[in-house]
Amino acid sequence: MAKLMNRLLLKRFTLLQSFILLCVVTLIAVLVVITIEFSWAENLRLRFGETEWVLPSLVAAVLLTVAAGIVTMAVLFYRWKLKRPLELLKQASESISANDLSFRISYDSRDEMGELIAVFENMRSQLEKNVKTLWRSVEERKQLNAIFAHDLRTPLSVLKGNAELLATYLPEKKLSEEKVLDLIHTMNLHILRLESYAEAMNSIQRLEDVLLNFKSMDTISLTTLLDSSGEQIARQFSIRFVSSLKYDNASIHVHVDPYLVMQIFENVVANGVRYASSQVNVCYDLQEGTMKITVSDDGPGFSDEALYKAVLPFYRGEVWDSSEHRGLGLYICKVFCEKHEGSLQVANGPHGGGSVTVSIGTQVDK
Fold this sequence. Notes:
Shape: rod-shaped
Order of helices and strands: HHHHHEHEEHEEHHEEE
Distance between the termini: 91 Å
Number of strands: 8
Largest sheet: 5 strands, mixed
Number of helices: 9
Strand content: 5-15%
Helix content: 55-70%
Radius of gyration: 40 Å
Strand order of the largest sheet: 2-4-5-7-6
């Protein structure tokens, strides 16, 4: 019966229409059977005459027929209109309870149950989007916190190194006043960086939300500041640090975010120092509104896999110091370079060793 109704496209009927239709069909079937039962009772009366058991038997048969009709109608209505959608909703509810939102639910009927399942599917879809958005937000925040922790190490190391230098040589008066003032100036810059980090951690939800704070600096002051940080990083690993310029005009002023440039520079140098055997070379070049900083080392260079994956977040490769190295340095540089209208490229040097070239878009005043 259910298959016959489906073939007649009765799935398009609403629950009320389906119920009325089943009632009519059941009523007709029951009336037909009752008519047959009356005919059967009349034949028995003619055959056996007026007997006491014919009428009670007829009444019992009619009652049984009506009861069977009602039960049959209820079973058909349940199997036809309720069973399948209820099973779908039950399975969907169990999946949601198990924190599984990857399923899909559909029901090819235009009745109220079909509409209910469609609404349930919309709810599931929206819930899945919300969970993915929340999870993405949590992951981005975790990643950002890891990046902040990664970048805090350098200014802290610089402050620690300068403090130890002052504590060791200042009492013996082995430092000139100019050198002391220079160390204090460097320490103040890194203290400002720490304050900037602390403020940013309270407001930034994603790495891409970092705002640029452009300042005008002459290239000599900028490269001197960068070299100071680079030397501190290299000293920790007993690596020699060598820098050079490809331009001669010392009066060039550039508009950059110095703190952002320092973050990029320190991450690239830290990456080079980590793999260098004895020396890291830094070359500064300024051309056509772009400042390029190339950091190369004399280590084993990038593997074929690393050439493609080095700038991906949390890529570590085969790093011995995996507890300290989170695989974020070059990824940070890539994002910050892009925010500075620049780019980052990794390669292997012609004589071996790895090479990372940072391009930073800048306005130049001569």
